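FYI - complex with adenosine-5'-triphosphate, inputs then prediction.
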Amino acid sequence: MIEVTDLTVRYGGVTSLDGMNLHFDSGVCGLIGPNGAGKTTFFNVLSGFVRPAAGSVTAFGDDLLRMAHFRRARWGIRRTFQTEQAISALSVYDNVAMIHSAMRGAARRADVLAAIEFVGGGISPDAKVGSLTAGQRRLVEVARAVAGKPRLVLLDEPAAGLPDSETEHLTGVIKNIPEHTGALTILVDHDMSLVSAVCGTTAVLDFGKLIASGPTAQVLRDENVMRAYLGTAEVI
Ligand SMILES: Nc1ncnc2c1ncn2[C@@H]1O[C@H](COP(=O)(O)OP(=O)(O)OP(=O)(O)O)[C@@H](O)[C@H]1O
């Protein structure tokens, strides 16, 4: 469960989050909104890259904003970025293993291999990340986000630029993250088919404010959402 109250982030004269309120319970939850709405800024606050001017964030009863950013990974925050973070010259195994901060020895090895197996895609743990296809590399990013007992998984446009066949596989993987890990998963993406397929609940940001939240199908039919997100056209 995550509860966000009056969250405000300013970069000089730009207010990226403007008193944002949000509540997500469990499962895969969507966070959508037009370019510049503040979605990545929200992830940056959760993961400790950005310090908000005001507001609070409680996750599973813990005050995230009071937690030193280097403790948040151990607490269980994982995220992917819009740019790939895995190191091309290292193996898939090493790329996943490096995000572990708590486990050691055989338990760590088993967990890393389980994360790689979970994302599938025919990826060998020994393969160098640089030798993989774009879709496989994206799966490695997801494997890094599900390793090490996450409690909160943040996925920032994981399907951007992927062909349909690879998006289809990724869709199944993302859908299964809560069952595999128990983590609340927040998906930011502009692909409304993906959001509809995996998110039970979706919230919409516009100019740093929450303008809608609820069951995904209902939210995507909301007139304010359609207006904010795609002019007056239908979302899907
Ligand atoms: N480091 C920064 N310095 C100044 N302004 C920033 C910074 N990071 C983000 N912004 C501004 O904050 C606003 C929100 O940006 P953010 O990247 O969070 O939006 P977004 O919803 O993730 O957009 P997109 O869908 O394009 O990724 C934008 O106006 C952006 O230009």
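The chain has a mean pLDDT of 94. The CA atoms of residues 107 and 148 lie 10 Å apart.
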